[in-house]
Amino acid sequence: MSTLLLFLPPLTRLHAQGHPASDAARPGASQEYDWVLTIDGRQVEREGRSAATALPRADAVVAVVGESDLAWRRIELPRAGRQMRAALAGKLEDALLDDPDTLHFAIEPDAVGGDTAWVAVMARPWLADHLARLDASHVFIDRVAPLSWPDATARGHFHEHGSDGAALRWSHADGVVTLPLEGGLSRQLLTPDLVQAAQWTATPAIATRAERWLGAAVGVQTPAQRALAALEGPWNLRQFDLASRARGTRGLRMLGRTLMRKPWQPVRYGLAALVAVQVLGLNLWAWHQHRELAARREAVTATLTGAFPQVRAILDAPAQMQKQLDLLRASAGSIGEQDFEALLAAAATAWPADRPPADALTFEPGRLTLAAAGWSPPQIDNFRTQLQSAGWQLDAADGKLTVSPAAPQGRR
């Protein structure tokens, strides 16, 4: 499944001299996005920079938020249910520099009210403008992900900072922070135990400098490769009023993309195993039914050949057995249910007491037809009921009553 990662341009802030933000930050301004395309989520297929209308197509689109545009706070979540966003704004109001109404909040995955959890905070108009612009260009963002987040696994990433400087992005269980390499603050915070336990990466341009500063080897990681690593993260910052809304076909596509992600891999394996077990079970059951049916056919055939050795070719064992029984009965002078005497006896037994003898009758093997002139519907129904109780059936049509042996399922 192909995935397109979009790097959202950093939020342009006021300059120190009070100059307004550049045109690129204003809603509706022309905007280009750095992007990375991956097929398997592990290797970069292509990367580039394009306007929203010229971005390559992919099965899923993930927007990546710059680390300078994201803040983290750890709080006890209020028990607010659907009012969680408003409750977060009230709880964090004293710790925020901006008006809570201008900020967007995202809570830690799987956290509920009453839990102590991390909350990501960012500028809402800036994020909403990018999402709306991309949506208007038919680029639907499935997920908004951070490059780093608080995690039990400590990670340090060295990257360029400013024109000639470098900085360390440090993320661990207690939060996320950007530390300058100049000065002694970073060295005081990073004890030898932390240095040994953490995972270290650096951009190619400053990898050598980072190794000298750290005194240990670091993995070289381009921004595109680091964004691929963020795909494995649990966070989706698109929550509350900025949550993705999808209906119909798009909703099914998004559900399919969600199920194809790595956290859902055990579910996919379980479903595949369940389907395989069901298919195997159905095949075993069909095989068992086939064997049982074949055994019954063999038993019927054995009964036929044992009772009538003169029958050589077995085509339809039940029909051939019935034919042989009919021959035996005829040769012995016995009456069968297809004979005139049996049909006439059945009609006589069920004949209504208020009806005179039949004016006329017609016989053919298995069928006795009587004239029904003057019969009322209740008389016909009573006649039919009497015959059915003895294992016969009655058909009434065109002023005639036809008596015949009942079908096998109707016989008692």
Concise overview:
The protein is of the alpha+beta class and 412 residues long. The protein is 35% helix and 24% strand. It contains 11 helices and 17 strands.
Describe this structure in words.
The structure is a single chain. The protein is of the alpha+beta class and 412 residues long. Helix content is 35%, strand content 24%. Helix 8 runs parallel beside helix 9 and helix 10 crosses helix 11. It starts with a strand and ends in a 7-residue tail after the last strand. Belongs to the GSP L family. It comes from Pelomonas cellulosilytica. InterPro entries: ATPase_NBD, GspL_cyto_dom, GspL_pp_dom, T2SS_protein-GspL. It is a single-pass membrane protein.
How do the strands and helices of this protein lay out in sequence?
Blueprint: E1 3-7, E2 32-38, E3 44-51, E4 60-65, E5 71-76, H1 84-92, E6 103-107, E7 116-123, H2 124-136, E8 143-146, E9 155-161, E10 165-172, E11 175-180, H3 185-189, H4 192-197, E12 199-202, H5 207-214, E13 219-220, H6 223-230, H7 248-259, H8 265-307, H9 317-332, H10 340-350, E14 361-364, E15 367-371, H11 377-389, E16 392-397, E17 400-405
Parallel strand pairs: 1-4, 4-8, 9-12, 12-13
Antiparallel strand pairs: 1-2, 2-3, 5-7, 6-7, 9-10, 10-11, 14-15, 15-17, 16-17
Helix pairs in contact: 8-9, 10-11
**Share in helix:** 25-40%
Strand order of the largest sheet: 3-2-1-4-8
User: What is the first-to-last residue Cα distance?
Assistant: 64 Å
Largest sheet: 5 strands, mixed
What characteristic shape results from the CA principal axes? elongated
How many β strands by DSSP? 17
Q: Please work out how many helical segments DSSP would assign.
A: 11
Which residues sit in consecutive blocks of at least 5 with pLDDT less than 50?
15-29
The overall average pLDDT, rounded, is 85
InterPro entries: ATPase_NBD (IPR043129), GspL_cyto_dom (IPR024230), GspL_pp_dom (IPR025691), T2SS_protein-GspL (IPR007812)
Protein name: Type II secretion system protein GspL
Main location: membrane
Membrane topology: Single-pass membrane protein
